[in-house]
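Why does residue order matter? Because the sequence determines the fold. Keep that principle in mind as you read this record.
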Amino acid sequence: MKKIIFLWIAAVMMLPLAAQQPDTTPEMVNEGAEAEEAVEASEAGEVDEVDAAIEAAIEEVHKDRPRGDTVNVIGKVEVIETPESTRVTLGENEVIIVEENGDTVRVVLGSRGLSIVEGEHGTEIKVLEMDDMPKRTYNKKKKFRPHYAGLELGMNNYLTPDFSLVLPPGEEFMDLNTGKSWCWNLNVVDFGVGFGTDYIGLATGLGFNFMNYNFNGQNSIMKDPDTGETVAYIPPYAGYITKSKMNITYMTAPLMVEFQIPTQGRGRIYISGGVLGSVKLWSNTKVKYTEAGDKSKEKNKSDFNLSPIRWGFTARVGYRNFGVYANYYMTSLFKPTMGPELYPFDLGLAFNF
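Structure:
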């Protein structure tokens, strides 16, 4: 089988060379049987020369080099031999690839290929698409690809220093309607550095968090004009507040260690965890209420004494492009002594790019 493969590749290489040969036929040629015999003899001679050159090259390879070496047999032909398989590549960009492994021979030309399997029931020939071809690992390192870039949708809340969702007296104005406090995160890019393998490595990236805190009481928040602290706020003349929320946008960057576990299919299970840093970009509050039977709304832009920089922990687990995530921040939502001491968290679903 190997000899047939080498002959086939050599023939492919010789075709363009033969097509470029100048016409050396004399001007006066007899068109009889002698001319035809001469042409046939010439063609047979060229095939014999190619066959002899290939046989000599193969003998030289096995004579002077052990198995497993990579050698140039003819021109752009690269041969990689291992105890399990033999691989032949033609062209600097792998124009043609022939790989023999046991009873299976694969021939790849561009984005298409053939698989020839000799089994108990005869020879089976199958046309392969590029996605069906096994990944080639010869002299190439696989790249570690992290799972951070994508879209995340979850809900958010915060905990007291005692890790409780129940707020202490005097801070009830920060109580949230959890069912309406949603967030979504757009992680626009990620980068990965493998630890010598594509199964474990460092992951980082850049994203944006859009946090929505929907207050449960008949109030919003504001900065007290006298003390500067964050306190409850009720719009003047407001009859009944139908909606009150605070929106905050952050720019985030993680630093995580990610483990990937291969499965029987093409996907992998991924588990990652690390730290997460955020910078506040802008914030505002929005209140909708009825005033003398008419609907009104009020929107205020301020920093509300929110911490401009925060950090915390992040964890993620999933399969292929779907997973779950959780973030918990060690930095209080407000600046120290300028508002309630509350530690934000959010968790939800992740859809990776």
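The chain has two helices and 18 strands.
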